[in-house]
Amino acid sequence: MEDKKLICAECAAEFIFTAGEQEFYNEKGFQEPKKCKSCRDAFKAAKRNKNYQN
Q1: Contact 17, 3 (CB under 8 A)
Q2: So where are the chain's domains?
């Protein structure tokens, strides 16, 4: 398996989906990521902050 170049659905930046990440995602039955790590982290942080405010 080789690294893949993907485009982030959020910010349109190109990011690398490594062979190791692909193997992990396949083992867990996950789909390949649609967002880069920065956008995923920002989404998670916003979600956490929203939960704390409720």
Answers
A1: yes
A2: 4-53
